[in-house]
Design brief:
The protein has about 160 residues and is α/β, with parallel strands linked by helices. The chain is built from six helices and five strands.
């Protein structure tokens, strides 16, 4: 039986920390779907869902054969159930992430019985890194090359220059 995991997030934009979690999850599961999802707690976004899917695909560059990218604008529990996933992968940077993620895991467990949430702690070099931090650094003219995949730096810089 295939072990399928779904790694959901807004990925606005994808960071090297996200890629680290994706690579580690790919080693744990037969197949991983990186799911660009809508987050009602976040307003709008820098990139559309379609653009984020494309940025993720370019960032991965086909380097991890058991990873695919998809998007969904609905309940995560519905997506994982329809996909036949056995796990949801979530990355944790700090203790402050845990409370919200723990609550979401309990809710998803109620909505999708049999689907467990697997928490992966960020690698030390990415503990501080978030998409919002990358957007802020870039918007203020800082260099983001150590924080995001090289393949998408130009896209991020161009979009944030247009928005500012």
């Amino acid at each position: 039986m295939e072990r399928l995991a779904v790694y959901p997030g807004s990925f606005d934009p994808v960071t090297n920390g996200h890629l680290d979690i994706i690579k580690r999850a790919a080693g744990m599961f037969d197949r991983v779907v990186v799911l660009v999802s809508y987050n009602a707690k976040k307003n709008g976004g820098t990139f559309t869902a379609e653009e984020r899917v494309e940025l993720l695909k370019r960032s991965l560059g086909g380097s991890i054969p058991n990873v695919t990218v998809d998007s969904y604008n609905g309940l995560l529990a519905d997506y994982v159930t329809k996909a036949g996933a056995s796990a949801i992968v979530k990355g944790l940077r700090a203790v402050s992430d845990f409370e919200d993620e723990f609550q979401q895991a309990l809710i998803n467990r109620q909505l999708a019985p049999g689907v467990d949430t697997v928490f992966l702690v960020s690698s030390l070099e990415y503990m501080y890194l978030s998409s919002s931090t990358v957007r802020e650094i870039c918007a203020l003219g800082g260099n983001i090359k150590n924080f995001v995949p090289e393949a998408i730096i130009g896209d991020i810089e161009e979009r944030l220059k247009k928005q500012n």
